[in-house]
Amino acid sequence: MERNISTDAVVIANTRSGERNREISLFSPDYGVMRVLVYGGQKSHKASCPPLFSIGKFFLTSNPLRNSYSFNDVKYIPLCPFDFTLKQIGIASFICELGKEVGESDHISTYRLISTALILLSASSDLIRENSILIQFVWQLMKSAGLVSDLNRCPVCGTEYSGTQFLFYSNAVNFFCCQRCTEERALFIGPGAQRYLSLTLEMELLDAVEVPLNEATANRLRRLMIAYSMNVCGRKLKTVQSGLV
Length: 245
Ligand SMILES: [Zn+2]
What we know:
Layout: E1 3-17, E2 21-28, E3 32-38, E4 55-63, E5 68-76, H1 86-102, H2 107-122, H3 127-144, E6 167-170, E7 175-177, E8 188-189, H4 191-201, H5 205-208, H6 215-233, H7 238-241
Parallel strand pairs: 3-5
Antiparallel strand pairs: 1-2, 1-4, 2-3, 4-5, 6-7, 6-8
Helix pairs in contact: 1-2, 1-3, 2-3, 3-6
Zinc ion binds next to loops.
């Protein structure tokens, strides 16, 4: 039996579906990932299909028999991000892909993180800030998925860190640990990055992106967070493989 529903959501994918229609994927705090058919969305007038990365209240028809939804209408939020630069599109696509992969356990936090990150991104005009948004999105998402331990002691042997050592990512524990507890050396963080990640771990995304980073550290941490994300997912991410991010 069909019924009408409404939910806040962000558009995390937008693809063609057959000759005339489009299919969008939404991430909603109420339902998680939803696949929604937009009938006639292929038509040229733009208003017919909500664009990628747009955020708003969506009015849908649910069809439980087909386990699908169809799109009726949307009311965009006031700060809805519509215009992105190419660089921002890369980061925004990565954010949506990772949110979908890692964030299914806590829909409310994941929705808040994706929508906040996209709004911040669209308002940003500088590269360091855009990298901070990516770094902090990954870090806060991993925290809300329960994958982050504190960075003051080794999660394997319990030894408290001195604050001057390097920590290495271990695939056995899916996190950073002391050098004695893993042979792996591919991904590591130095003392400066450790302090930054420790400090921002207790913050909300909005505040964490305000913590200053210099360009070199922002670039390093960006590469680290992308590699860390792929380790957690256990596979290559499409946005990374395609060179978008
Ligand atoms: Zn250890």
